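Final report, Chapter 2: Outcomes

The project's central promise was a pipeline that accepts a single protein chain and returns its three-dimensional structure in a standardized token representation, suitable for archiving and comparison. That pipeline is now operational. To close this chapter, we reproduce one record exactly as it appears in the project archive, with the input sequence first and the structure output second.
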Amino acid sequence: MLTLKHIHHVAIICSDYEQSKRFYTEVLGLTVVQEIYRTERQSYKLDLAVAGQYQIELFSFPNPPARPSRPEAAGLRHLAFAVDGLEQAVTQLQRNGVVTESIRTDEYTGKRFTFFADPDGLPLELYEV
């Protein structure tokens, strides 16, 4: 049987590289590990650390197709980030102009969460741990 150790990274393709770079670094506070411009692909690849543990790869490509999101489309549904204080995290997002949904409670775990979107409408979640 295959033995998976953990998730290594999540890759995201954005439509406006500078806007998404600012969102993920300045609004969400992710740390830049490295930034590479790949001339042959006319593409940036930005490696971002999440609390020094997991990595997000942010890519830009010329004219990427839109990602179906709502109603629920097949494929990756959303990306969730764990936070300690949900209200404080929501307040910080809102200070940066990010609209969040109402805080809800997971009926099975009793944990609270909310959703918001990145600049391309990718659904993101904050999940209180």
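Archive annotation: The mean pLDDT is 92.
This record, like all others produced under the grant, will remain available to the consortium after the project formally closes.
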